[in-house]
């Protein structure tokens, strides 16, 4: 008999900016990702405030993506065929408020999500909605410097209020910000921040994060007022940081890195900045500008559950010379762990690390957990008969789900598991399509060519079996 309860939310996850496309249809404004090209060009400056110039490119992957906007019925039908109990998706903020500053929402944008939620309801799939998944309106980045400007809080609260009032009859689970700690690693996408060389980088990022934290608590307050049964979660880009060796300096370095990722979740779950933040901020030379009432709103409205993504653990040394050997993987730099294999994109594969991470998060917060992203991005090949034999993905997911179940046996309460990119979509980091996660293959390449035809991979049928047995049969 499985240890997972009968209402465990099996499913998958997508994001509006990586799947919907239709970037300028039905009144939608530009999002942050709409300004990003494909490949290495994404690392180039997008906007020069001194000259007022925006760089332009030949191809923007998000403009069409996989066109979920016009294929949502077909895609949801395929999710239902797999047996999904839940679909984590995000709402595009600029589809509802094109610039972010409007007082009244774009009705055409709201109507699209009405149709999505009605379709999910028809197939008995529970929506898990991220309010802002790397999708701040570009106008706010260009004119406010995104979340660094406190006025963005009011824009977000207005947006979130519209969502709660419109969709609470469909949605029980809400996530205020996607991977809030990623603002420290990809500040443009995470916070709409355009940081200049002359700026105090850490001051800008942590101040912007403070505004996101206040906005999250205000959204929690409003959600409960609209419907007291609304469940509000925060989200962490998680992955335990291991010490490079058992040297005490390495242990301390790993502790510090773990605190760096947990600091914002400490606030959202516990209602206050942790004591260690005082020394951290002092050593970084930053001062968080708070307004009267900020601490009170953070204290009064913590989240109900902790959601997180998990792809890899990391490795940290207390020796600066050793840390020079770090490689980049999923926006997080890490030393190479000799006990782990890595994917083609350098992500170190550590299923046991998921169990470690789950236990650490629950020990820290004592709130229910929700795994809302986990998956393997790899290159898939379609055979001459239209098959995709992705045993490597099945093995990855099987090993991770097995360790997830071990964590539940350890006593960790878990709401559900939604694997990332349940259908192939555009990579957030590189804009690639060849880096595929899905159970469903989408005929689209890195240059935007292809028919958009959907094909079931071998992993589609494997995950169908996993859900049908509530995690009892992970064989492949």
Automatic annotation (TrEMBL):
Keywords assigned: Glycosidase, Hydrolase
Location of the active site: 373 (nucleophile)
Keyword Hydrolase: yes
Gene3D superfamilies, per database record: Glycosidases (3.20.20.80)
Highest taxon listed in the record's lineage: Bacteria
SUPFAM superfamilies (alphabetical): (Trans)glycosidases
Record-linked Pfam families: Glyco_hydro_1
Family stated for the protein in its record: Belongs to the glycosyl hydrolase 1 family.
Annotated protein name in UniProt: 6-phospho-beta-glucosidase
Species of provenance: Staphylococcus americanisciuri
């Amino acid at each position: 008999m499985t240890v997972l309860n009968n209402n465990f939310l099996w499913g998958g996850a997508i994001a509006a900016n990586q799947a919907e496309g239709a970037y300028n249809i039905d009144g939608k404004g530009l999002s942050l990702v709409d300004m990003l090209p494909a490949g290495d060009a994404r690392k180039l400056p997008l906007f020069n405030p001194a000259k007022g110039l925006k760089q332009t490119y030949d191809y923007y992957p998000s403009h069409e993506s996989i066109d979920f906007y016009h294929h949502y019925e077909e895609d949801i039908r395929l999710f239902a065929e797999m047996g999904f109990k839940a679909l984590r998706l995000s709402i595009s903020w600029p589809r509802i408020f094109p610039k972010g500053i409007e007082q009244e929402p774009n009705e055409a944008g709201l109507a699209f999500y009405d149709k999505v939620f009605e379709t999910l309801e028809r197939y008995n799939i529970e929506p898990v909605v991220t309010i802002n998944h790397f999708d701040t309106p570009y106008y706010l980045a260009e004119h406010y410097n995104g979340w660094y400007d406190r006025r963005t809080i009011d824009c977000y609260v207005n947006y979130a209020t519209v969502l709660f009032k419109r969709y609470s009859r469909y949605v029980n689970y809400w996530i205020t910000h996607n991977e809030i700690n990623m603002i420290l690693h990809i500040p443009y996408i995470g916070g709409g921040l355009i940081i200049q060389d002359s700026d105090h980088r850490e001051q800008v990022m942590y101040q912007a994060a403070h505004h996101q934290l206040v906005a999250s608590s205000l959204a929690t307050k409003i959600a409960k007022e609209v419907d007291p049964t609304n469940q509000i979660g925060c989200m962490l880009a998680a992955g335990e940081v291991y010490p490079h060796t058992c040297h005490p300096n390495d242990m301390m370095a790993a502790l510090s890195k773990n605190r760096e990722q947990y600091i914002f979740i400490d606030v959202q779950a516990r209602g206050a900045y942790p004591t260690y933040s005082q020394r951290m901020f002092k050593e970084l030379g930053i001062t968080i500008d708070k307004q009267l009432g900020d601490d009170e709103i953070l204290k009064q409205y913590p989240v109900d559950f902790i959601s997180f993504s998990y792809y890899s653990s990391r490795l940290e040394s207390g020796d600066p010379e050793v840390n020079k050997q770090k490689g980049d993987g999923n926006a997080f730099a890490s030393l190479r762990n000799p006990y782990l294999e890595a994917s083609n994109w350098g992500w170190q594969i550590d299923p046991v690390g998921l169990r470690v991470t789950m236990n650490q998060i629950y020990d820290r917060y004592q709130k229910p957990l929700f795994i809302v992203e986990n998956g393997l991005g790899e290159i898939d090949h379609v055979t001459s008969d239209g098959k995709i034999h992705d045993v490597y993905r099945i093995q990855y997911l099987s090993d991770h789900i097995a360790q997830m179940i071990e964590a539940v046996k350890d006593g960790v309460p878990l709401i559900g598991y939604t694997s990332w990119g349940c259908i192939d979509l555009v990579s957030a980091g590189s804009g690639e399509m060849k880096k595929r996660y899905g159970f469903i293959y989408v005929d689209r390449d890195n240059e935007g060519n292809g028919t958009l035809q959907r094909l079931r991979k071998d992993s589609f049928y494997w995950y169908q079996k996993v859900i049908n047995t509530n995690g009892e049969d992970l064989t492949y």
